[in-house]
């Protein structure tokens, strides 16, 4: 048998070149993947810095807004105020609301886009949510002599965060009023369709071009400035609407027949499958006197809020820093603690933590107030021991309702039974 010799063929120059090219491409791919990973990290860090800056900006702007809003509330409570004074009060109220809404929209857009917004959902009556939203825009609609036509015959229940969903509807109504001229018509209708609640907000205002309609829910998108549009904005209101509705497993769409022919926004939400009458009531609580410890280092905010609480029949003790507040809370009995978070000496988180660790101390119902409105700030406050977290500038009616609520009464009863 002849010997068989195996031979190894040397690569040709062409094969050498191809192998070198493959190695080069692999190296280039690895470099590009590393660059993409670095860009993702940079984008994540930039997002974190942006959100931190927005939170700080909102805090610094809300702090002066709080005493302005409270002082303005006191103007309307003066005995026999003149027509001129009431007009000044109305102007300040509108502008404070406008600034507050701009801040809220910026922060909401940031938290929604970063996925950090958390909903507190429960069965809620849809018509009541819409009426809450209508209250926030009623003054602007009246001032522009716009007609608001309501078709809400059905009481439908949805599983919703009442505050957030009402905010989404308010944004739609603000948008309709903004782009509708004086004397224009805004229609709100509610109906049930195939297991879903359908809400339409329609107007006969400026309308939209198809190009604008295609991106109307994108952040920082706005219609053209025209004489119809009487005020500015940040272009995030409809973006917030879409994200809140989608968090509720719903959908929102916009439609228009073109410029000058109005717009229609339709929100579709799943109906609550349980008892339709189980929605939580949205009305305020009855007036009742409480013993309140108010801890707030801003002198104007402390004094004005204290006077408002006194005028409502409450007994108010004021402290202007965390150390004094903790000392008073340890040595006296209060029904309610209203405590700012960013305090000198001892911040609100540490104050409530140390108070709860104090043997034998009476623990009041604790309400945190702060210029920070991020979900993480709220979560931290509740974890520290606060019962509620309220963002500045304060909605004084909501705060008064909370102070007089059954939650505070239950806290008082539980403390009394423990003694």
TrEMBL record:
Database matches in Pfam families: HATPase_c, HisKA, Response_reg
Domain Response regulatory span(s) in chain numbering: 291-407
Name of the featured protein: histidine kinase
Taxonomic superkingdom: Bacteria
InterPro entries per record: CheY-like_superfamily, HATPase_C_sf, HATPase_dom, His_kinase_dom, HisK_dim/P_dom, HisK_dim/P_sf, Sig_transdc_His_kin-like_C, Sig_transdc_resp-reg_receiver
First-tier enzyme category under EC: transferase
EC number: 2.7.13.3
Modified residues (4-aspartylphosphate): 340
PROSITE patterns referenced in this protein's UniProt entry, alphabetically: HIS_KIN, RESPONSE_REGULATORY
Database matches in CDD domains: HATPase (cd00075), HisKA (cd00082)
